Model the fold of this input.
Amino acid sequence: MPNETILLIDDEAVLRQAVARTLELEGYAVLQAPDAHRGLETLRERAADIGVILSDVKLPDGRGLDLLPRYKALAPLAEVVLMTAFGTIADGVRAMKLGAFDYLTKGDADEQLVVVVDRAAEQARLRRRVAALGQQVGAPYRFDAMIGQAPVLEQAKKMAQQVALTDAPVLLEGPTGAGKELFAQAIHHGSPRRSKPFVAVNCSAFPKDLLESELFGYRKGAFTGAAADKKGLFEEASGGTLFLDEIGELEAGAQAKLLRALETQEFTKLGDTRPTRVNVRIVAATNRTLKLEAEAGRFRADLYYRLSVVTIPVPPLSARPGDVPALVDHFARHFAAKLRQRPLAIAPAALRALAAYPWPGNVRELKNVLERAAILVPAGQPLDVADLPIEVQLAALPRAAAAAAPDDPRTLRHVERQHVQRILLECAGNKAEAARVLGIAHTTLYRKIQEFGL
Done:
């Protein structure tokens, strides 16, 4: 039997010692407590270690049935087995309803005790594995896992954390690639619905005549090709969260049906005559200003107000440039693990170039640049400016020149630096072409770039 710790609570010292000895011979570690008070104290101190609680029903300072909820509250992943000298069916049924794993009568054969404890210990191990897997699955979507500390990001996270605990609809507004789906996932995993489905749909990814059937489903024979009943995404997400990305692309008919589904939590499938009831929390996202779309008549105003109970602006990366180094480090490690290689080292000049670029494609664009670099930069070499896309290189040139130490404009060095910089700009950052125009070797050009701070 793998190492497992049992907490044995019984006021009869002789019986307690005998049971403890039996379990220790089976490979268990046994903690003993003579009453409820010391048993609860041990649980508070050692809850993470204890897999099974073996408790007498009748204790000097409490009844096991009454203490059972307190045991479970202190050690929710442990299993509780109750023991009694005079067992009744009614007590056994009540114990099971309160969450006990089993109910034993004192004096049962040691073999039966060991079998029950073995089963309880295995169930406790399974509970811990499931809990650990749940933490791993949800970990990337926790609010504290979001990379960055810019005030605009912290403000958005604070709003999202507050609304996550409710069932209120949320509208996420921000440019493409800023991380709106990451916010939606964090809201779901931070809510009481976290154990239920999170279903995401991009409203712009379906033809307008198919989106309604995807959202709400249909009955067999509703139209040509409907050979069987189909659940819609609303029904798939029941109990959990439905994330509607690019909600501004929803056509008028689907908008009307969505509004009714939000207000009544029911809808009628295509080809059906009876409504289907669901329990869904809606999180929507758009890269438009949906209020302006509603005012212009391009989006239903009543649906906008229903969706925007809480509107959270997700900031573009250009609004938080100080977060770029942390994101670069995160993606370098992420792609190293994905490609099973050492994390890519980033040269200081390359990091300055990445920080200088305005990132019109936001975090998604930065992620793509780091993935490209992880694939193409030779193993053992750092990521340098030359390995970055040309647009990133160009954005870095003016800042690098401004950051270089000023020199006397009358010197040859100053003239040379200005000329090299001008040729680099004319060649759109192509160093091979710039070296050809300047009539120097590629390595010489790199040396001058480093010397002049370009």
About this structure: The radius of gyration is 32 Å. Residues 110-138 form the longest helix (29 residues). DSSP finds 19 helices and 16 strands in the chain. Residues 399-405 have pLDDT under 50 and may be disordered.
